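forwarding from the other thread:

> can someone predict this with pyridoxal-5'-phosphate?

sure thing
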Amino acid sequence: MDLESNLKNLRARVKKASEHLGRDPESIDILPVTKHKPPQVIETLQAHGFRRFGENYIQEIQTKAGLLPHAEWVATGHLQTNKALLATRLCSTILSLDSLRLAKSLDRESQSLMKNLIVWIQVDLWEQEPLKGCRRSEVPLLLDFIARAPYLRFGGLMVLPPIGEDKAFRDSDRYRRDMEQTSQTKIPLSMGMSEDFESAIRHGSDQIRIGSALLGPR
Ligand SMILES: *Cc1c(COP(=O)(O)O)cnc(C)c1O
């Protein structure tokens, strides 16, 4: 694996996809997803200016956080409520809030630690089997709950659409725009991974989550 050339290549592709639409490439947040990758890889990414790292497993964050005190952790995988305390302690951001039950746990733990936590709602607009996020109908409840939780900050919407469907990216963007209309605020959209980030950018993604295109296969 050659991280330097992967990074160069990734940035060039992000630039091309965004300029194609007249979007500023700098406005697209690249979140490296470092699950199953050793701490040295994260150190190399830090040397290239990355500060935040996506991880799917809280236990893995716990191990790595002990070795990498300056890294900021973003939980990207399904989070069980019994991990809420640990997740709140270790992470700046939860990208995968997918139930009111989890929101209540994160509210309680963020209050007990008096720590701000950025939460993104992961919504499954397609109701995949198994579900990859909350249902559409739960989103208003979650938004309302977050707005009233003293330490939770709404970050945006995260989606994991069916693979290889541009239509799903369009659905996500439309859903986000409708929400923006209703709320009169900007709502960032986290969509796109190694295989499909260019298409995601063309459909309005604000954050792409990149593992293998940067770090090689897991
Ligand atoms: C693993 C993972 C990624 C990165 O996947 P790649 O295809 O390796 O880029 C992005 N988002 C989530 C939620 C993941 O679990």
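The pocket of pyridoxal-5'-phosphate is lined by residues 33, 35, 56, 76-77, 160, 193-195, 209-213 (CB under 6 Å). thats all i got for now
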